[in-house]
Amino acid sequence: MKMDADHVPIFFDESFRKLNAGTIESHPNPTCLEQIELALLYENAPAFVELINNLPSHLLHEELNLILMKIVLWDSGKCAAAVLDGQTKITEIPLATSLLSQLHPAAASNAPKITALLLQRGISADVRCDYDSPASVGKLKNVLPLHVVMARLRSQVLCDNTEQESPARMLVRLCQPHYRRTLETVRLIALNTTEVKREFFNYLKEGKLIEVGALLLVAKSQVLLSPSTTAKGEGEEEGEFRSISEICDSAFVTELTINNEMRTLTLLEIFDKIGDKLAALVRLDFTQTCLAKCSTLLAASLIQNAGPFLVEGLFYHYSYTRSEAESYFLKGAIYACENAIRTSDMLPNWVKEAALTGLGVKSGSISRLTYPFLAETLPYVNTTVLFASPMLQNMPLLHHLLNKTAPFLGIIKRVFRHP
Description:
Layout: H1 15-25, H2 32-41, H3 45-54, H4 57-73, H5 77-84, H6 104-108, H7 112-120, E1 129-133, E2 138-143, H8 145-160, H9 167-174, H10 180-191, H11 196-206, H12 209-218, H13 220-225, E3 232-233, E4 236-237, H14 244-248, H15 251-258, H16 262-281, H17 292-306, H18 322-342, H19 349-361, H20 383-388, H21 390-393, H22 396-416
Antiparallel strand pairs: 1-2, 3-4
């Protein structure tokens, strides 16, 4: 089954856990509360439960708010699940788990694991309330969780640049690993917000390009295809749109252009040309080498190659080229596939050897990664047809192999293939 890009989780680095844990671990005799913090950082739910249940009641009451805040702040999903499941004494305290009963705190703390946990447990993304958090830039009135996480993203981006930076440069910044955790939280909440289309058009009408860009990066199909038709611009029904180009040609955007909102049109034009590539780019793993430099270079190159969009000044100081960055990620893709094959318990050695040999042959160039590396050995090339093929359903070993490796190669295809 083909997975829509909007439903594929975004890769994000969690090195902050080690950094924070290292500070605590440097203490010769960590206190009980510091041990709880370590359990939260490492998401060690058994240790967290034991420490909480052995904590003196008076100390638990005194530190409860801080403990709950750090569960959310450090996105300790497993420990949050333990609290919600009643494994700790916390649930015996009236209103103790209120912080974990709504999505707004998780949204404000860009906590994707806790956001996913709460959504799985039926917490609605459509609930509005007043919310006050430093992370969301002051008091917000009658807001959805989507508004809260967007406020958090806006505050992050505006710390790095100005409101009037070009749309191309703004998109390059959004593609950096620094924003991945927030973008994943945006993705989860947007996919579960009933009126996400209306909110998208509200942001578009207000010229809030950071919010518009984020939604198009991680939830484009929801924005375009969701059933809501309540979005309006200057009293006019927006109707249904099935592509970015249709939005660009609409009377709504034409009116924005007349009002000199050219930055909005430029942003939409970029997404019309390379939106799928940018959406795939934010799902790549940049943690091994080069980090944000590679993502900045690749995003800037994709945008620059798509048209006369201003991205100058963001990557001149890099000592490597886009082709070198592409080579690194292609090698990463091949390594990931090889590792998936080698570690699979379902594949016999003869299948592993054949697959690894074929993968080695395919590693020569970008064009050779256009289709999954075993596709040419089968009578189908289109992966959608291939996965639905009755023949493949009767070939469980190859079906397993392609299911395990093709998605990552598909992302590489969408980013690097030529138009």
